[in-house]
Amino acid sequence: MIIEANNPELKSWVEVPTNSDFPIQNLPFGIISIQGGKPRVASRIGDYAIDIKSLFVLGYLENLPFSIEDFDTDSLNQFMKSGKKGTRELRNRLSKLFSVSQMDLQKNDHHVNQVLIEMNQVENLMPIQIGDYTDFYSSEQHAFNVGCLFRDPNNALLPNWKHIPVGYHGRSSSIMPSGVNFHRPKGQMKPPTAEEPVFGESKLLDFELETAFFTYEGKPLGDNITTSEADEFIFGMALLNDWSARDIQGWEYVPLGPFLGKNFASHISCWIVTLDALEPFRVAGPVQDPKVLPYLEYTGDKHLDINLEVIIQPENGDENVVANSNYQYMYWNMNQQLAHHSINGCNIRLGDCYGSGTISGPNEGEFGSMLEISWKGTKPFKMNDGTERKFINDNDTVIIRGFSSKDGVRVGFGEVSAKLLPALELSKSK
Ligand code: CA
After folding, report:
1. Ligand 1 centre and the CA of 143: distance in Å?
2. How many angstroms does the Cα of residue 223 sit away from the middle of ligand 1?
3. 142 is catalytic
4. d(CA 222, ligand 1 centre) in Å
5. pTM, 2 dp
6. Given 110, 111, 142, 169, the catalytic residue
7. Domain 133-421: which topology?
8. Dihedral of the CA atoms 50, 54, 57, 60 (nearest 10)?
9. Positions of E strands within 178-247
10. pLDDT tens digits, residue range 65-82?
11. In CATH, which superfamily holds the domain spanning 4-125?
12. How far is the CA of 358 from the centre of ligand 1 (A)?
């Protein structure tokens, strides 16, 4: 099906800077506060937020399946109840309103001033009230690297890895929007040379380069979503930094998997780029050998070409690019992940978040975590200022950026950025 808003020929009457992630072909959704005001639903074009609540009040969203409550609110959840049909219609309407060929809004300066807000007047808030959070482990190179580091290079992938999109249930309470800083976690760990476990600040604090996708309301408990149906249940994507405390994780993860090494902080970028807007950037995935079970088979190009970049910026320092990767390196695609997640009858709900797993490419410079970049601390990364990083230092800011590009159109996510603050003092019982 043709999505009108994706037409690469479209031009907006709003000036969009060259290399902006937010041309008229993107029109992502998010939640903003304008100069500290009440949260509301917004989109973005160039360096402006589009105040969708005001568009609704001014009558530009007539004959769409929405009411004021869908936009005068602090999350996208209400508006996502309209499903893919509704969110697609809204994005198409925005596309028309901001297209050079349409005069309705363009000619009305008074309305334009109410609707278009310069981004420096806007605070991006958490876009979605996330219900459940699932994190997958779907990049082959990442799984291979971790297998080499902790097990055996000759048997790096565990026997199940090419048969199921491995995942675990994470914790949604500590998922934050870009820009909210956090403190170094503390916990129990057992250093390789220690006889007994010790308690302290995590010394091996790491980022994980990931993307996330968010679902509309799925099917009821007991039913499953097929790979061919999955697109209809996926609203959109964001960048995800799934922070990990490797030393806490290393001691705790057997036998039940990740727990406190993972659930202290994860950050997402604030504009949710719709799956519709990403359709032009579909690419074929890797050949899956051995053949997957029938419920994981899929047809068509279901992977996506999204350039990804990770930066470490020390306090008052320059940006250091530590990794470039691409979402197309995923072995399992979102359709397979969702089909697998629901094949046992697990219900998928509106606002659930699914992490891709760390995305590493096959080449030097394409690894999506410090664990891999520094090869477990044995190959420190050299920074511009002469210092080295094995993992993340206090007061380092980690920034992930991502965009797709084709036919002269660039659709991007902006960034997810957060600073690691020193650990807080421990509260102790008296
Ligand atoms: Ca992860």
Report:
1. 11
2. 27
3. yes
4. 27
5. 0.98
6. 142
7. Fumarylacetoacetate hydrolase; domain 2 (3.90.850)
8. -20
9. 182-183, 186-189, 198-201, 205-206, 209-215, 234-241, 244-245
10. 999 999 999 999 999 999
11. Fumarylacetoacetase, N-terminal domain (2.30.30.230)
12. 6
